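Private note to self, pasted from the team thread so I don't lose it. Backbone tokens:
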């Protein structure tokens, strides 16, 4: 290493140590605690990487020569509490005051080749532990308490070059743990790093190995990727390496063959642009705090809906007589596909419901034209969107990717007009909580019927009238209810 390189590395180390200043007291205590007990300990992985990048890190991951039972002995009396849910993998968790940390025995993992569960083998040195890390940028450590920087695989150089390489040959690393291939895409989205050619080739050759990873772990990586500053970078890696074919096959399926007459746009490219535009519309922290439709970023539901909104197009594409192309009801088909994919990835029910609903509603605005909707139609739009209205606003606006400036301006002005009408109706009618003027108890009492299907139909009728005609008042609602009920009592009613 040249003198210039040593000077540069020294300056970077000083910057990293300054970044770690808030945790330095705690780290020094831990180093002295373990050293007094005759054990080595080091800060390792993501916290070290982020310190060099000047990024905040909430994690404190440490590795030690001590075995799990020895870790517990060292921490007894120092930590407020400890837990050992990771004992089988050599990890002991601890909390002291507001600080939480995980300390793991040096590892030299071997994997069984059929699942990604490691067969735990404790290592004997820090260097042996670092070689089993996923990427070289995560294979750096700071020995405690003396803060000696350990970088046997050139991770600092990879940070400077914004590249991702593995400590082992990539084939060995990915065979040990296929989830690392998804992490490569995630780090591209989060940090702007690019996997090297040999890493990308190994990911392509071994893409099918991702099938042994649990759906929950795949989901967690995809969520981190989608919430990153540049999800497109990671998604493109997933598609080009073939990993997306196994974890999100609906995405590469959007790469429809564009016919020679270019009668429809590139749906894959369109979807990535919509995602980018939706991210651009997310509200900044503290922005528009009093707006009920604000969507603070990063928002997982909005981003997933933007990415998946057109996945119903491939199965619904039809070439029409005269040269046209149609995708009839692709929003309905896409909603069903979205629900199935998110369930397969073990997303929670609320996220599945919200993203699916947005995909289903994303075309609704196109019937608005230049303002032809009645107030009743506007009320239905708001009611059908419910608490997702703010996200629907942003998804709909993002879905305009036309290069025709006049068309784009026309669509934007039209949606501006719709939002203005929504605000006006909100002020007049408290549109966010549209309900019939009579609740279920009142309807049952007026009609003399118990809770059940009949009462449900009566409630839905009054809601439909409320949406169509606006506020009726309690007396008007009662008269309409009795009129409707009389029709139900007549033959054929």
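Design output:
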């Amino acid at each position: 290493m040249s003198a210039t390189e040593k000077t540069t590395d020294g300056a970077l180390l000083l910057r990293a140590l300054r970044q770690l200043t808030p945790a330095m007291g705690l780290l020094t205590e831990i180093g002295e605690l373990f050293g007094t007990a005759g054990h080595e300990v080091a800060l390792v992985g993501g916290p070290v990487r982020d310190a060099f990048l000047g990024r905040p890190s909430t994690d404190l991951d440490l590795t030690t020569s001590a075995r799990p039972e020895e870790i517990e002995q060292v921490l007894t009396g120092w930590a407020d509490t400890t837990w050992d849910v990771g004992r089988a993998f050599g990890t002991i968790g601890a909390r002291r005051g507001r600080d939480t940390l995980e300390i793991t025995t040096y590892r030299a993992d071997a994997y069984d080749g059929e699942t990604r569960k490691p067969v735990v083998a404790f290592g004997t040195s820090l260097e042996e532990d670092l070689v089993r890390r996923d990427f070289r940028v995560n294979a750096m450590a700071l020995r405690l308490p003396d803060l000696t920087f350990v970088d046997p695989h050139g991770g600092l150089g990879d940070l400077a070059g914004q590249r991702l390489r593995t400590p082992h040959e990539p084939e060995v690393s990915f065979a040990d743990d296929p989830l690392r291939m998804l992490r490569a895409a995630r780090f591209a989205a989060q940090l702007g790093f690019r996997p090297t050619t040999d890493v990308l080739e190994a990911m392509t050759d071994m893409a099918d190995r991702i099938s042994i990873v649990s759906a929950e772990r795949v989901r967690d990586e995809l969520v981190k990727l989608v919430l990153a500053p540049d999800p497109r970078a990671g998604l493109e890696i997933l598609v080009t390496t073939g990993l997306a074919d196994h974890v999100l096959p609906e995405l590469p399926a959007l790469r429809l063959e564009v016919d020679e007459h270019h009668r429809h746009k590139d749906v894959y490219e369109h979807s990535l642009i919509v995602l980018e535009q939706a991210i651009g519309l997310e509200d900044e922290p503290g922005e528009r705090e009093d707006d009920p439709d604000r969507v603070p970023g990063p928002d997982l539901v909005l981003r997933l809906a933007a990415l998946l909104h057109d996945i119903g197009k491939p199965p619904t594409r039809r070439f029409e007589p005269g040269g046209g192309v149609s995708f009839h009801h692709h929003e309905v088909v896409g909603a069903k596909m979205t629900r199935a994919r998110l369930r397969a990835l073990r997303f929670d029910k609320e996220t599945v419901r919200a993203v699916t609903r947005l995909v289903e509603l994303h075309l609704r605005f196109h019937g608005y034209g230049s303002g032809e909707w009645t107030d009743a139609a506007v009320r239905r739009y708001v009611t059908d969107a419910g608490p997702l209205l703010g996200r629907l606003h942003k998804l709909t606006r993002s879905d305009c990717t036309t290069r025709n400036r006049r068309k784009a301006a026309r669509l934007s002005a039209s949606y501006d007009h719709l939002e203005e009408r929504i605000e006006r109706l909100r002020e007049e009618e408290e549109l966010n909580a549209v309900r019939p003027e009579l609740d279920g108890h009142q309807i049952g009492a007026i009609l003399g019927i118990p809770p059940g299907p009949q009462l449900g139909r009566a409630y839905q009728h009054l809601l439909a009238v409320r949406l169509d005609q606006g506020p009726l008042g309690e007396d008007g609602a009662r008269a309409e209810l009795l009129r409707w009920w009389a029709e139900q009592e007549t033959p054929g009613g």
